[in-house]
Request: fold
Amino acid sequence: MKPVKKNGFSLLELLVVIGISSIMISSLFYLFNNINILTSFTQSNSSNGLQIAYFYNLLKDDLSNSIPGIINDEQSIYVNGKNDLIIHRAIKKNKNNNAMNFIKIKWSHLNGKLFRSISYFGDNSFDEPELMFDYGKKIFFKPEKMSDLNFLSRDKNFSISIISIVFGNPIEEIFTFKVGNN
Amino acid sequence: MIKNKLRGFTLVEVIVSIAYFSIVASSIYLMSSYLVSSSKFITKDYASRISYMSYMERIKLNQINDELSDEISSFAGKLIFKIENNVTPNSSIYKITLKPKKHKKNKLFETYWIP
Reply:
């Protein structure tokens, strides 16, 4: 009698294959889980850096394009009780011509968050504040130097020429800006 | 006597596969660690750059000595540096150079100051 040849796997072979595959799958899951942690870490790190770069350059741009003197019966640049920084600045109407428009910018902070809002010329109200930087700790504005604008008027008229924004208490960081064209 | 034919892997095959997987795993690990360290470096480098520029704006408010060493805390951590104040060909204008301690030697920050 000719023995029947079986083509299937033995129990031992199947157990070994299942064991190896389960080890491989669990190691892959472990690797992907680590990659997710890595991605979220990199994302938060980069977004924090981008936020700092964005708000720093925006504030620098506002102060660089500010207009010295008195505008609409108020100082062009002033700090309102360490909480709000008001800047009157010039802005291009559109990209194609050099016509300028005046806008009023308010940089304010609340609960460690830095906001920026815009008021257009002739309108006393500000737009919805835009969150610029979520620091989470104390932030305040510190005028560093006041300069006399006697080249603009005969009266004594002092305006901020150097201003700092201070982060943290004790201080963790200070960004200092020169007002006017840098 | 009929020899029992075993159809397993040879020692060479096992060694090659282990070597291959260890190379792949270590390259994935290296790639990810480079990604993290490069993003950290870019953030810290930019943060330290704007901290140095801010410091140079503040230092102009006071009388600057010829040379001074200072340290400040910033978003990039503690920054240690040296400041040099040199006269330019125009005697009323000074050139302030900031030399960070931990940066490369050729990485300097410069500004001009009129007292």
